[in-house]
Prior knowledge:
Elements: H1 4-17, E1 19-30, E2 33-44, E3 48-53, H2 59-66, E4 74-79, E5 82-83, H3 89-96, E6 99-102, H4 114-125, H5 130-143, H6 159-170, E7 177-181, H7 189-206, E8 209-213, H8 217-223, E9 226-231, E10 234-239, H9 241-245, H10 250-256, H11 273-277
Parallel strand pairs: 3-8, 3-9, 6-7, 7-8
Antiparallel strand pairs: 1-2, 1-4, 4-5, 9-10
The chain binds adenosine-5'-triphosphate and magnesium ion (MG).
Amino acid sequence: MQKPEQTRLLLFMESNTSSLVELRNLTFGYGERVILDDVSLRIPRGKVTALMGASGGGKTTILRLIGGQNRAQSGEMLFDGQDVTRMDQRQLYAARRRMGMLFQFGALFADLSVYENVAFPLHEHTDLPEALVRDIVLMKLNAVGLRGARDLMPSDLSGGMARRIALARAIALDPELVMYDEPFSGLDPISLGTAANLIRHLNDSMGLTSVFVSHELEETFSISDHVIILANGKIAAQGTPEEVRKSADPLVYQYVHALPDGPVRFHYPGVSVEDDFGVGAASPSVSPGAAA
Ligand SMILES: Nc1ncnc2c1ncn2[C@@H]1O[C@H](COP(=O)(O)OP(=O)(O)OP(=O)(O)O)[C@@H](O)[C@H]1O
Ligand SMILES: [Mg+2]
């Protein structure tokens, strides 16, 4: 039987350790332009988190803040309880060593074989003997089902295979946190399903914490524990897929139901339809007297 103090201590510890990443009242902009405005969000440890929202909303920016490539202007960017914003080069390097990243347009190195692509981070960041590097590379390739493709060059791979190799490369260093920026873009439904299941499976079998950016609603909701939707520089919704699906926020409703019109307008702002097509609409902009 646990004493009440023990229970309290455990609850306290859990609240401190349950998020691997936490943004607290974080504001970030490029120059004068604010991209994230007083944003607070958390990425739960050991879980799969999806980051969604309209294009240009700041999803890649958030991943870059986590990796310390972008520095917040105010607020906190906590990785395992430490503020990335205040880290010096050495601390940042150590933190990045614990993160794996699949970049948005993260092509493989075209002139390196599949094997060499996955071995690359191991050669860059460790001085492990080659025999061990080989075992790790083959293990990672096996995890994504492509051990047999080790000698192929990137130009010999389909888009779905290339994505899985990039996934293997992102987990080569056994990171605690893996960030995937649009891992599904351009994939056919089968490859998409395979990639989505892999993210879930790798997360659970390797004890990772995963965060991925995606626009694919159904696949995303089916593999995620936690969903965050960004809109207009703020968090529009955050919670389990079910909670987010039920959100009353009109923007979230439009997004999760994929409605073409709503708070996000279909039409680019301009003069009204009546002004353009109705009675008294402006005459053609080419004046009759203009030279042919
Ligand atoms: N280096 C930069 N300098 C200035 N503005 C930038 C820079 N990088 C991104 N931006 C702007 O910041 C905004 C957010 O960009 P970000 O790449 O985070 O969006 P995103 O949500 O990932 O979009 P997408 O879904 O299209 O990838 C965009 O409007 C973009 O133009
Ligand atoms: Mg992006």
